[in-house]
Each structure stands twice: as C-alpha cells, then as structure tokens.
Amino acid sequence: MKLAVLLPFYNAESTLSAAIESILTQTYQDFELVLVNNASTDQSLTIAQKFANQDSRITLIEEPQLGIVYALNTGLNHIQTPYIARMDADDVALPSRLEKQVAFLDAHPEIALVSCVVQHRSTSVNTLGYQKYVEWINNLVTPTEISLNRFVESPLAHPSIMFRRVAVEQWGKYKQGNFPEDYELWLCWLQAGAQMAKVPEPLLVWNDAPTRLSRTDARYLPKEFYQTKAHYLAQWLKTNNAYHPKVWVWGAGKLSRKRARMLAPLGVEIEGFFDVADHQRLEVPCVHYSKIPPPGKVFIVSYVGNWGAREEIRQYLLNAGYREGVDFILAS
Fold it and tell me: Taking burial as the number of CB atoms within 10 A of a residue's CB, which of 86, 100, 175, 220 is the most buried?
C-alpha cells in the first residue's frame, strides 16, 4: 500500500460523514484512512466507529490530549506508507483527488508535497477576504510561485495536501507552539529545500465554516502569522540577500512598519523605506518609490498588504529589472 489519508476530528458530527464518504468513494481505492478522534464530546466518535466497522481500510485512533497538533502527530506516528494525504472533517474531497495527487508524486520525484486548486464554500456572510485569499492561493501552482510567495500568506490549503513520508522523517513533524501549525510546517520545509507544487485543477471543496480553526484559534490571529513569517523570512534573507543584513522596505504605513520591524531582533537592518511620498518622520530615510536605484544596489522587501497594490509593486520592480527572489521579495 502506497497511501494513507490522515483525518483528525473534534466535535464534527454535522460534517464528518460527508468528509469520510468523499474519501471512501475516491477513484483511487488502495489506501488506509486514519481517523484520529481528538477528545470529541458529541457524536463524532460514534459516526467514525460506524464507518470503521464497515470498511477495513479505516483505522480509528484516540488522541485524548486536545489540540490539532497532538492529533496530527499521533496519526503520523501510526502511518507507515510512502505517501500521506491530509483531510479535514468539514471538507469534501472531489472523486479523483487521491488518484491525481498520487500520479503527480509518482511522476515528479523531486516534489516533496503536492496540493491542488480548491473550491471555496461558505455559509457565512463575511467571507470576501477568504474568497480573495482562495483565489490567490489557487494561482500559486508551480514550485517557484509557491516558494516566492510564502512570506505573503500561507500558499496552501492544509486539507488539500499530499506529501512524502520521507519529508516528515527528514524535516520534522508538526510543531506545537504559539503559531499556525500548517503554515509553520510549510515554511520550515521550504527553508530546508523542499519543493512544493499543485495539481492545477479543483480537487477539494474547502468549507469556510464559522468554526474553522483559522477563524477561532488564537494561533491563527494576524500577529502570530506575522511573527512566524518574520522568523523564516529573516532566515531566508541571510541566504538570499546579497546585502545582508541590510534591506530597504517598500511600504511606510503604520502596519507595514510594524510588521517589518519584527525583523530587527532577528538580525535584519532596515536602511530605509520606499513609499508614495518623501518624508522625514521616521528614524531612517523614507523616499518616493520613483527613486528606487537600479538593480544591484539594494535588496527590497515589500510589506504592502493590499492585494492589488502588491501585484503592482511586483510588476513595477520587474519592469525596472529587479529579479524576484534575487533583488526583492514580497511579504506582508
């Protein structure tokens, strides 16, 4: 057997059956489905047990210590297959997901992790921001696109991934801490040299429920994202910035400065800011972006968070001869 699907659950009685059924009815049928009950207090365990009694491919594991990282790593400790797919209890895998991701890993031995395009579904009213985020990640398909955009936001939907067990053995499992466990894992593996890609078609319905961890868990608050990103961005700059530790930051607004200054304790020195106007209100120079020097003089980190403005900045720098990943990097 080549594949195991890891599906942890906690109080998911209203969605668990659909998630499990979407895996059991895949076109690719040779797998183990590892269900990890993470101290559920509703009928989730009863539902999972019913499925396990009916299908020998299902293994049901108990993880009494509440927390997604405990559940994930308990599942990983059990799994011995070369490929491991993730699935969440409130999402639905489209029928050919496993088949196409297995085929992708088979055909691309250099790829450690494969994701896919996802369909966004929500029962909430205020989902415009999440919809924009899904559109953004769906446009990041190649290893280069994923790598260069990893400091903007998490470039992958967690329940959409399939990865090689050797990646876990080489670069580590999910870490417990005051940060989003999935995003930290991507950043850690990418920093270690992992290549990640996507099957360029929808293979998962990603449900944006009000109870999703990314909406309710304190580790998913913006501050924790920024601190996690800053840690790995500082490491990346040491290796990829020819002028390390010096950088210039594009974006002198209050939020951009706040995020950029998280780099200072990590050994990065901000020489100045580029913005839409010159001014002398900061402790370092702030000049109009039209005064950006020719390539080969500075390294630029853009901290402008607006979706449209970020792409305009990328295009401006590319048109000026700057190379993404060599002369500049986008962050947020």
Answer: 86
